[in-house]
Amino acid sequence: MISESEWRAFAELFPSLGKTRETELLIKRLGLIRRVEEGNILYRDGDECTHLPLVISGELQLTKHAESGRGITLYRVDDGESCILSTLSILNADSFPAEARTNTPSTLCLIPADLLRRLIDTDEGWRQFVFATYHRRLSGLIALIEEVVFGKLDLRLAHLLQKLTAGNGEDLQITHQQLAEELGSSREVVSRLLKEWERKGMVELHRGRILVKNQLFPQEG
Prior knowledge:
The chain is α+β, with helices and mostly antiparallel strands and 221 residues long. It has helices at 4-13, 21-30, 84-91, 113-122, 124-150, 153-165, 176-183, 187-199, and strands spanning 32-36, 41-43, 51-57, 60-65, 71-77, 99-102, 106-112, 171-172, 203-206, 209-212. The protein is elongated.
């Protein structure tokens, strides 16, 4: 059951998903608001997908792991967004194909599988939202594949560090394994690059953090 205050927060972030009184009442009665800590695993690869998570606050990270232990970040779900892999798993009655983990303390609205199917069948706002989310995520995954297949890892790592630090030389709290998952590479390869950059004075490496210095990173050409 969703309270009135919780509904107002939901409706502000997802205005197209509760336009009719019938849909609003269904979501209030059958939806769940769940507050979870950082690092909570919502779904593991192969789990049954019982609910669609809609992020009210916080962030979900979707990661695919190989048997070797290597992983790659597929996408993140921020405030006002939903997880398209959850939607597809529910609609296809299939298992969840990745890992969904909270990156920060998060508040989620969980829509039960049966309710999601009903809303997509009966509510135009929900259908349009699902199609728009699918298009956006598919475009992002295509761009990710292009980066992994065609991009140079040193340039991609440099651009990622600059993005994460906003180019201002911040002390970045992140592990080599997390960077590897972002890039779809191995921790060993990322560590070798970082150690080479440290020898050149471009970064300082510490346990669980990286100091990115105000120096030029590798450029194409």
